[in-house]
């Protein structure tokens, strides 16, 4: 009986909706990058929390009962859209009347270049600084709708954050412009950086188009190795949400270095 009682208390604690701070709008995001953007726009005027943790795989995430309870108490849910969160519609159906906003609305989507999702919109639009400015504006507008009393605060924060993004981007453009055109390559595990490559004039190479595809098949690995050798590409990157093993396999035989997220 004691064991059963302890188990019941544990389950109840896991399912209990966490307590939000009082007297502030409550915002839930689907992943941490949107949460970071929203926190920059919200400042101290709203409370922002991500459903998923840093480094989580977003495409096929399975929301927990605790996630649902947390979001039901929110005033706003922010999602990326473009089919990044394949679980979102079912999740949203459990939230009642909580409004949701797609922060990628208004961007010019790029198509996925290969694999099972060829031709579908590439969901990683935030990788483009220009798109990031659109995200910021969509977040500002959404916060202002649910909390018009702080609209001026959100506007000021959004402007400051947008100015910071622009100031960060300009030196990168200048440094890349100094590179010979043949050296302007970006090689990654997943094709998640197409928007960034487009913005900065980089030629893109990747082992697989999206994480939902097969990751690092022999054919994919060989194609990347051949291209890296032919173009003398010295670096391959692997993000923290995927296995770095395929990229680490490619690096030595391509006479390159692998930088992997952690």
Written overview of the protein:
The protein has 262 residues and is of the alpha/beta class. It folds into two domains: 17-172, 3-Layer(aba) Sandwich (Rossmann fold); 179-260, Rossmann fold. Helix content is 44%, strand content 13%. The chain has nine helices and eight strands. It has helices at 2-15, 32-42, 65-72, 88-93, 129-146, 151-177, 194-200, 218-231, 245-253; strands spanning 26-29, 47-50, 76-79, 100-102, 185-190, 203-208, 235-238, 257-260. It has a four-stranded parallel sheet with strand order 2-1-3-4, with helices on one face. A two-stranded parallel sheet has the order 5-6. A two-stranded parallel sheet has the order 7-8. It is globular. The protein starts with a helix and ends with a strand. Residues 1-17 have low confidence and may be disordered.
Number of strands: 8
CATH superfamily of the largest domain: Nitrogenase molybdenum iron protein domain
CATH topology of the largest domain: Rossmann fold
Provide the number of structural domains.
Answer: 2
Broad shape: globular
Helical/strand content category: alpha/beta
Mean pLDDT: 89
Spatial arrangement of strands, main beta sheet: 2-1-3-4
Q: In the CATH hierarchy, what is the architecture of the largest domain at level 2?
A: 3-Layer(aba) Sandwich
| Tally of individual helices | 9
Main sheet: strands, sense, barrel: 4 strands, parallel
Low-confidence stretches: 1-17
Reading the helices and strands in chain order gives HEHEHEHEHHEHEHEHE
GO cellular component, one term: cell envelope
InterPro entries: AdhesinB, Bact_metal-bind_prot9, Lipoprotein_PsaA-like, ZnuA-like
Keywords: Metal-binding, Signal, Transport
Protein name: Metal ABC transporter substrate-binding protein
């Amino acid at each position: 009986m004691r064991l059963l009682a302890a188990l019941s208390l544990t389950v109840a604690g896991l399912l209990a909706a966490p307590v939000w701070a009082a007297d502030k709008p409550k915002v839930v995001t689907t992943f941490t990058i949107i949460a970071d953007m929203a926190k920059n726009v919200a400042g101290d005027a709203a409370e922002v929390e991500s459903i998923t943790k840093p480094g989580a795989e977003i495409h096929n995430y399975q929301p927990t009962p605790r996630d649902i309870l947390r979001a039901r108490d929110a005033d706003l849910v922010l999602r990326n859209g473009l089919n990044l969160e394949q679980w979102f519609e079912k999740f949203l159906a459990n939230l009642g009347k909580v409004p949701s906003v797609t922060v990628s609305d208004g961007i010019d989507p790029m198509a996925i270049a290969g694999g099972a999702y060829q031709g579908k919109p590439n969901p990683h639009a935030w990788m483009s600084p220009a798109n990031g400015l659109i995200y910021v504006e969509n977040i500002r507008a959404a916060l202002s709708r649910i909390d018009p009393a702080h609209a001026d605060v959100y506007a000021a924060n959004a402007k400051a954050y947008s100015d910071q993004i622009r100031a960060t981007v300009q030196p990168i453009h200048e440094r890349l412009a100094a590179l010979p055109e043949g050296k302007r390559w970006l090689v990654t595990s997943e094709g998640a950086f197409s928007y960034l490559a487009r913005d900065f004039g980089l030629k893109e190479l990747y082992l697989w188009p999206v994480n939902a595809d097969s990751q690092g098949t022999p054919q994919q690995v060989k194609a990347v190795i051949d291209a890296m050798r032919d173009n003398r590409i010295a670096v391959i990157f692997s993000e923290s949400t995927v296995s770095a093993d395929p990229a680490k396999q490619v690096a030595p035989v391509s006479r390159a270095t692998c930088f992997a997220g952690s």
